[in-house]
Specification:
By secondary structure, the protein is of the alpha+beta class. It is 28% helix and 26% strand. It is built from 25 helices and 38 strands. Strand 16 and strand 17 form a beta hairpin. Helix 4 runs antiparallel to helix 21 and helix 9 packs across helix 10. About 12% of the residues have low confidence.
């Protein structure tokens, strides 16, 4: 096998582990295929999701596939307690050794069909993954919605207090730190960036959701303090953030990819010596895989500096836009399973190779190093190597002679007193440790066995693994139904990955028979030599006695189960269900813990229904309007939400009345929503004007979701009001959005079919005479494609931006320099999937301009639907005229 084929197979078999419950999905680590339906990864990436495998997906970017996970099995000696402690102790600061643990190995059973997320468990998982906020030496805290970040910093600077401002993102994960002192900003850290660049990036990206300001500080090591005035720093950051959108568009957009246009580039040719180091790093980082958006994180500079550096390299002709969508093969086919080699002799100093995908770009990366011995005498399968892996996530393949022998876990901390720290050792686990996962129960399997397969998620703060001390021969045995290998736990088979289900337990007799079970009779038979005939007679007498006992005791037997109070039992209202199904397109059955409530008495004369949940603390009201007023004029309903008992928006001095807002597809239209803070009708005007973040004042504020969407019945619409079922300060509005999306799932599917050109036709079965529904895919006609091509031509012509030197060339009657042709592929969703030049201009800047203009117009709307989901178009440039036609 050639090296290119080997690399392609490794790339197609390696993917990124994603937490798909957040948006955008978070990359947890790397995984690679080891059998038909099983993959291996590091346990440190997956231990939080053992009881929630549905929350995990694996993205194989080179194969362009995303698969689900059925089950997760950790190595039996992986220390869950230590892993949980490290998760809870996150600071958001650089820490190269935070995830290094012994026996860091796990396997996952793959599900090729990505199952929908269980809405009822989403909140529970989020709660368990949310870190507790610090509660020591807190001066002030609050919510950041992106726009008020600079206002928070300004207020703290004016107070002239010294301390640490920490910014938090999703699940209370710390993402940035700012040191303040005597009205000045001393140091800043965010996403591998420091000081001015970090602050500029914070203002541009707006990643924070909340903040805490504490008197204490952290150890900044050798980070220099800033001397720039805070006002100047904030003014410059705002200027850069305002200019960046237009600058990025000129460079082809955030998702644009650049490649080296020449073999060598002399940095000295750039006259501005201040950017030599930046340009050199940028030049070396351009591989055709990484997008402009992630280049800054790759080389440690802010996005504004990236754009400036790219512009310089483009002007000097050193780089060019990639002339196709990406370098990924996108063959929709996973690579062959990577074979584990466990019979290798390995000695200190032996050369090793690492393979992994760059987490920022997905590019295949190879690194060289040596074997460096055993990491722990007590755990000899944990080994050391000297391969320098610059990836923050674990799971790289460690190879000897290009054969898999281990999995990279992370860099080791330097030993105390060590003289030479230039070569930092890293830890890997020998791939033979996979055998341990089938020899005895893992700690997570015991936890599942204690709590049951359908139990709630174990808390991060309470779960502590039990030590496995029983001998192997005393463990229970389960036979795999696929390969018939013996396993010691239910779940995925260690050999083939097939799921072993829990065997049906034999019902144990109760009452009088509990003293003489069939097992005890069998024991008596063997002990006293009783024949089968005598055993049958004795069993019959025993069953007769048990039957008589049940009859005599049936009149006096009372159930030990305490019935639920009538007040906690809720039944669906038939009237509410009918309105929800016919007018809103909702499912007729509410999710577990919810019920349909008839609320028309509250909203009369308007019809309405409610979806309530006492356990989920949700009360979502749906009011039917005979027109589209809520859809067309939602802001008119936001100022004072109907039927909610509030007087108006909260005019707080330390928090914004607006919490969040957005829009998502629902049914045949969109669900537009707004979440805000409102004062209750009982609060006085004086109280409203003096609301603060103290607990007493927050009690006068309620958070309410206001939304709207078109009804299933044409010309009608629904107004949505979501709030707590019981009184409370906070409101989980995301659960309400998930609830609405889940209930309207079928309505949305039908709407998507219409959007994609599919219609539902009624056909008659000639054999049975019954009517059936059949989906008919309406592919575009020639006339529709012709209309689209005309619109595309006008759009590209208006977007055309030739380089300045082309103006002189246009004066000539004929010019090959202003002549280029490419094949453009656009999918049904309007995304550019293919871009290949069949005729290139002599000027690379003209080719770049054509690619940039095409990307700037994407995504395209009203794309004609085709069978292969790709409309191929020939785009040609002749002088300054764009022409568009079919191949």
């Amino acid at each position: 096998m050639s090296f290119e084929s080997l690399e392609q197979n490794f790339a197609n078999s390696t993917g990124f582990i994603l937490d798909r419950t957040v948006e955008p999905p978070v990359v947890l680590g790397l995984a690679f295929i080891i059998s038909k339906n099983r993959a291996a990864a590091c346990a440190s990436c997956l231990y939080n999701y053992v009881e929630a495998p549905w929350a995990v997906a694996i993205n194989f970017p080179h194969a362009d596939l995303v698969v689900g996970v059925k089950a997760i099995t950790l190595h039996p000696d992986f220390d869950l307690k230590t892993a949980h402690a490290k998760y809870l102790a996150q600071t958001g600061l650089p820490d190269n050794f935070s995830n290094v643990q012994l026996n860091d190995l796990a396997t996952v059973a793959l599900d090729m069909q990505l199952a929908p997320l269980p809405m009822e468990k989403m909140t529970q998982l989020s709660n368990h993954l949310t870190l507790p906020l610090p509660n020591l030496d807190i001066e002030t805290s609050g919510v950041i919605n992106g726009d008020n970040f600079l206002s928070v910093v300004t207020a703290l600077l004016e107070s002239e207090k010294a301390g640490l401002l920490t910014l938090y993102g999703e699940r209370n994960l710390p993402i940035a730190q700012i040191q303040l002192e005597a009205g000045s900003i001393k140091r800043v850290y965010f996403n591998t960036l420091y000081n001015e660049m970090a602050f500029s990036e914070l203002v541009f990206r707006k990643p924070a959701a909340r903040f805490i300001f504490q008197k204490q500080d952290i150890n900044w090591d050798a980070v220099k303090t800033m001397s720039i005035m805070p006002a100047n720093l904030m003014t410059e950051a705002k200027r850069r953030a305002a200019e960046l959108p237009a600058l990025l568009e000129k460079m082809g957009g955030k998702q644009a990819r650049y490649q080296q246009a020449i073999v060598q580039f002399n940095i000295a040719t750039i006259t501005n010596a201040n950017i030599h180091k930046l340009v050199e790093k940028l030049w070396l980082s351009l591989d055709g895989y990484i997008t402009v958006e992630k280049l800054g994180q790759k080389i440690g500079v802010d996005t504004y500096s990236i754009v400036q550096g790219l512009r310089e390299l483009v002007n000097y002709g050193a780089i060019s836009l990639l002339n196709r969508a990406s370098l990924f093969t996108c063959g929709k086919q996973l690579g062959n399973p990577i074979v584990s080699h466990m019979d290798f002799d390995i000695n200190p100093g032996d050369p090793l190779t690492a393979f992994y995908l760059d987490p920022l770009s997905g590019a295949p990366v190879w690194r060289q190093g040596n074997f460096a011995g055993v990491a722990s005498v007590l755990h000899p399968k944990n080994l050391l190597h000297t391969i320098s892996i610059d990836s923050p996530i674990s799971g790289a393949l460690i190879l000897k002679n290009y054969k898999l022998i281990g999995v990279h876990n992370g860099s080791m901390p330097p030993k105390v007193g060590a003289g030479d720290t230039t070569t930092k050792p890293s830890q890997m686990i020998w791939i033979g440790a996979l055998l341990d996962m089938g020899a005895r129960r893992s700690a997570n399997a015991e936890t599942q066995e204690r709590s049951g397969p359908h139990s709630s998620l174990s808390g991060l703060r309470s779960l502590a693994p039990a030590e496995v001390s029983e001998p192997i021969e005393q463990l229970e045995k389960y036979v795999c139904p696929a390969c018939y290998s013996t396993n010691t736990q239910i779940g995925p088979c260690f050999n083939c990955g097939s799921i072993i289900e829990t065997p049906v337990e034999e019902l144990q007799p109760t009452g009088l028979t509990n003293k003489f079970s069939l097992a005890s009779l069998q024991a008596l038979k063997e002990r006293y030599g009783i024949t089968n005939k005598q055993l049958i007679i004795a069993g019959s007498i025993l069953l007769l006695v048990a039957w008589l006992g049940m009859i005599l005791s049936s009149g006096e037997h009372t159930s030990e189960t305490t019935p639920l109070p009538a007040s906690t039992i809720h039944h669906d209202s038939a009237k509410a269900v009918d309105l929800a199904v016919t007018a809103a397109g909702f499912k007729s059955e509410a999710p577990p813990g919810y019920w349909y409530e008839d609320t028309s008495e509250i909203t009369k004369p308007a019809k309405s229904f409610g979806l309530y949940s006492q356990s989920g603390n949700q009360k979502v009201l749906f009011v039917l309007f005979d027109d589209l007023a809520p859809v067309l004029a939602l802001p008119d309903f936001i100022n004072r939400p109907l039927f909610s008992g509030v007087s108006g928006p909260a005019t707080a001095t330390d928090m914004s009345a607006k919490v969040d807002q957005g829009s998502q597809i629902l049914g045949s239209g969109n669900l537009s929503w707004y979440v805000g803070r409102y004062t209750t009708a009982t609060a006085t005007a004086t109280e409203t004007a003096t609301i603060t973040t103290t607990e007493a004042d927050q009690a006068r504020v309620v958070v309410i979701l206001v939304g709207s969407f078109p009804a299933k019945i044409e010309t009608k619409s629904f107004l949505v009001i979501g709030q707590n079922f019981d009184n409370g300060i906070s409101y989980d509005y995301k659960s309400a959005l998930w609830l609405i999306d889940h209930m309207a799932q079928e309505f949305t599917v039908a709407g998507n079919q219409k959007r994609l050109g599919g219609e539902t036709a009624t056909v008659k079965d000639n054999n049975t005479g019954t009517l059936e529904q059949e989906n008919v895919a309406n592919y575009a006609t020639e006339e529709e494609i012709k209309i689209f091509l005309g619109q595309l031509k006008e759009r590209l012509q208006a977007q055309l931006s030739l380089p300045e030197k082309a103006q002189e060339e246009l004066k000539k009657e004929q010019s090959k320099k202003l002549k280029a042709t490419l094949i453009l592929g656009i999918d049904n969703a309007g995304n550019v999937k293919k871009m290949e030049f069949t005729e290139s201009s002599e000027w690379e800047s003209v080719n770049n301009a054509l690619v940039r203009d095409i990307n700037a117009c994407a995504p395209y709307t009203n794309v004609p639907k085709t069978k292969d989901d790709l409309l191929k178009i020939v785009v040609s440039l002749r002088r300054d005229i764009i022409n568009v036609e079919l191949p």
